Amino acid sequence: MRPLQLKLKGINSYREEQVIDFETLTSQGLFGIFGPTGSGKSTILDAMTLALYSKLPRDTKNFINTNETTASVSFLFSITTDRTRKYLAERSFRYHNNTYTSTVRNTTGRLIVCDGENETVLADKPTEVTAECIRLLGLTSEDFMRTVVLPQGQFSEFLHLKNKERRIMLQRIFHLEKYGIELTSKISRAKQKQELLLSKLDGEKKEL
């Protein structure tokens, strides 16, 4: 996935709308995000995760700016090297009862594919946007946060996953599920043949 543009408003310290043009930033090569603690560096990554999955890496529930009751995010990205096909994930959030003590709800969501001059809506409900992003990226929110957006202090989490969890994640990332299913099926068939052969040999042995 290649981030192209991010718009966020009302999220944590970003009360006013901010626009980050990643294409301009990466035009000269690598770039870094620097600033003192609390300046909003992590919020930029959080906003990407919110746009794609409606979740935050640190499982934070109240991320709306303290002076606002609503928030919005728009994330433009591409998946392949074909820059003509882009995807735009948009979401808006608000407090359930417009009070700071209530829970935050994802009120609207939309995912659009921009193919040249043509635009097609792939999903127009929050849950559908999440499901489509998982399908497009091949990553669940947990996978994304472990491999793409690593929360502070959790850079080695992937390395410490149990073997089964790591294997399942890598299967999703590299679309290897079908090979795992095929291998399991082959092993099962071979085991059945072996059991039938042993049963046949036992029967012949008893007849001797």
TrEMBL record:
Belongs to the SMC family. SbcC subfamily. One of its GO terms (biological process) is double-strand break repair. One of its GO terms (molecular function) is ATP hydrolysis activity. This is Nuclease SbcCD subunit C. Signal peptide: none annotated. It comes from Anaerobutyricum hallii. Residues 5-198 form the Rad50/SbcC-type AAA domain. It comes from the Bacteria. Heterodimer of SbcC and SbcD.
